[in-house]
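Please annotate this fold before class:
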Amino acid sequence: MKLDPASRDRAISRAGDTDLSFRYSDAPEAIFRNFRLGRSTEPDYVRKLADMFAVSSDRIYEAEHAYVAEGYGEFIDFVRRLRRHHRVVCLSNNQAIHWRYISENLLGPGYFDHEYLSHEIGLEKPDHMIFQEVSRTERCSDKEVVYVDDIEENIIAARKIGWQHCIVHRDPVETARMLEALAADQLLN
C-alpha cells in the first residue's frame, strides 16, 4: 500500500490552514502502538485523537483512510494470480481501522489465505515472536517461507529466526519478478 502521511495531517488540520496546524506525529507514539497491538479499543483510540486534535471522530476516520492512499493495482492482481497455486498469507503491523479500509476498499474479501495482524495477536514486527507464531501456525519450515517486507529491520528479524527467502520490497514490478523467479526455481510449492 502507498501511505500518505501529508493527506492524513491535512484531514485533521483546520480548514484553510495552509501551515498544517496538527500533525499525527504530534501525538504520543504510545497511542498508536497500543492500538496497533490491540491494547486499546477503536473507540478509545479515535476519542483520544479527536480530543487531542480538537476534531470530530468523523475527521479522525477521514484522516485514517486518507493515510492509506492506494494500492499497487498490478501487484495486487499479481498476488491474486500467485494465490491460485500457492498459499499467500499476510503478516501486518496494521491497526484495525487501516486494515478494515484496505480489506474493504483496496483488496476485497478473501484476498489472503490467512492474515496475521498485530492488533489481533498482540505482537508486531520486528519482534521475533511474531515470525515464530506464523511458522508455528502455518506448520511450515523456514525453507518454505517466502517473506516480503518493505522495512529492512523486519527482513533482518525474519532472517534471524531462520526464514531463508526474504525479499526487501522497493518496487512492485521488481518484487513480482523476484517471486516469479522463486516459483520458477520451484522454491514456492
In short: The mean pLDDT is 91. The first strand starts at residue 2 and ends at 3. The beta strands are 2-3, 68-70, 89-92, 114-117, 146-149, 165-168.
